[in-house]
Amino acid sequence: MENETKIFGIRAVIEAINSGKSVDKVFVQKGLRGELFGELDSLLRKNAINASYVPVEKLNRLTNKNHQGVVAQISPIEFYDLENLVMNVIESGKTPLFLLLDQLSDVRNFGAIIRTAECTGVNGIIIQKKGGAPVNGDTIKTSAGAVFKVPICKVDHIKDAMFHMQASGIKLIAATEKTDNTVYDVSFKEPCAIIMGSEGKGISPSVLKLADDKAKLPLLGEIESLNVSVACGAFLYEAVRQRR
User: Fold this and answer.
1) Is pLDDT above 90 for 22?
2) In the CATH hierarchy, which top-level class contains the domain 82-243?
């Protein structure tokens, strides 16, 4: 699966971007120069595509083809437009339930969250273009194929997605330990989106500030935190319980 989602060569990557392909990440050889590279570099910046500048040895490990100093990771799925998705869910008569993932970076956690989201009837998952985990072979495998069943939106900025959801009547609930409320004190019965943070830092302060409500999971042992995919599952099944 991963081989099917990689393309290589400067011109090939430029064409992929110009044709609207969902490019998750581009690996570029350090010190690369030239007019064609300048064109690629401008496209990466214009489209806010995540790029890593790496030694040639890294590129050689990614592919044994003539990569010309550039290898791109292409998403195997098509991403949804956020505004259209939110509108369609609301018009369907369902009570919206969304997930917002703020800088989640581990592909296996991402895949596990997508799998749980499919099982709990989540209407869509929103991720940020830069800094988040890509949809690749590991994501697909860990999700058990759920990545092809749950709509996923990629946005330039999570905060813009939050503003749009709030304007659409969707309550934003942040999963954070920085509150006295537990997950059992918060209502998930109305239209809502659950915000999950990154594995190491949690939800960023600027995103947390915009949340309408905050909730945490009670921890009765000595370890101070749960794996993010496990915590997400607990939140989603509390939403299921309340809505049943």
Assistant:
1) no
2) alpha beta
